[in-house]
TrEMBL record:
It is a peripheral membrane protein. It comes from the Bacteria. SMART domains: AAA. It comes from Nonomuraea guangzhouensis. This is ABC transporter ATP-binding protein. The lineage of its organism: Bacteria, Bacillati, Actinomycetota, Actinomycetes, Streptosporangiales.
Length: 298
């Protein structure tokens, strides 16, 4: 289990802002084995700073990062897979050579690094480009190589900063499949993304960060339950005036009347609807992650 507890970080200011900037103000969350955690927030909210602290690139002013119940140290971090926001590939190196090289840096022998690189390039659709220099690749394919570099040493934890940025739908599916397989093998995965529909589809848990603070966290189902306040009732061909006096608004499409309300006695509304006509739907609308995000950061 990876545990981030009360991280705080302030960056030094300049002449115009001598007090500096608070980047993190008590960020805390936990990622369990086999869990995919989506880290979402606006630009500058603190996602990248948090990931850099997890990987030891930055030091926090306060707070801690623990792995398997112990403080996270350099030795453990070497077994993590990291995809930074600012990509770090050697542009002149060939694709396969580069992935193998990073495998060797993580302590793999030559044969193991070569085999792992070949498997990942095949899984990520890069086999035909294995002999090309990185600089000859599209940005999307460079992104795939960067992911292969993060995965080549079979990491115990994956920390990925905007891994889906710039990818076409086919590449997104290929990357998502690889990450899901790692999760099923027990690897905790953290990734940040502005593609909230993708986070909603892939992630077991989500953390929403704003101005350096975690403003909402939990499973998508839990977050939906908190925000689910709109009752939606669809009645087909109801008697005229059936909703008179009920809270909310009614829209009419053909012979269907749709009542939306956040107030009132649900059982009374259901009785009125059943008496008026055929009830086709009665339930609380499930908000999307985008709607939850907007509500949380408002």
């Amino acid at each position: 289990m990876l545990e981030i507890s009360e991280l705080r970080k302030r960056f030094a200011g300049g002449p115009d802002a001598p007090e500096g900037k608070v980047a993190l103000d008590g960020i805390s969350f936990v990622v369990r084995p086999g869990e995919m955690f989506g880290f979402v927030g606006a630009n500058g909210a603190g996602k990248t700073t948090t990931m850099r602290i997890v990987m030891g690139v930055l030091q926090p002013d306060a707070g801690s990062v623990s792995w398997q119940g112990r403080p996270l140290e350099y030795t453990e971090r070497r077994r993590f897979g990291y995809m930074p926001e600012e990509r770090g590939l050697y542009q002149k190196m060939r694709v396969a050579e580069q992935v193998e090289y990073f495998g060797r840096l993580h302590g793999m022998d030559a044969a193991a690094a070569r085999a792992a690189a070949g498997d990942l390039l095949e899984r990520l659709g890069l086999t035909e480009r294995r002999g090309d220099a990185v600089e000859a690749l599209s940005l999307g394919n460079q992104q795939r190589v960067q992911l292969a570099v993060a995965l080549v040493h079979d990491p115990e934890v994956l920390v990925l900063d905007e891994p889906f940025s710039g990818l076409d739908p086919i590449a997104v599916d290929a990357l998502a499949t690889v990450l899901q397989e790692r999760c099923r093998g027990g690897v905790p995965v953290i990734f940040s993304s502005h593609q909230l529909e993708l986070v909603e589809r892939l992630c077991d848990s989500v953390g929403i960060v704003s101005a350096g603070r975690m403003v909402a966290s939990g499973t998508v189902g839990d977050l939906r339950a908190v925000e689910s306040r709109t009752l939606r009732v669809v009645v087909r061909d109801p008697a005229p005036g059936w909703a008179d006096g009920l809270p909310g608004t009614v829209t009419v499409t053909g012979d269907r009347h749709v009542l939306l309300t956040t107030d009132g006695d649900g059982q009374e509304i259901l009785r009125r609807a059943m008496k008026a006509g055929q009830v086709e739907h009665f339930g609380t609308d499930q908000p999307t992650l985008t709607e939850i995000f907007k509500e949380a950061v408002a």
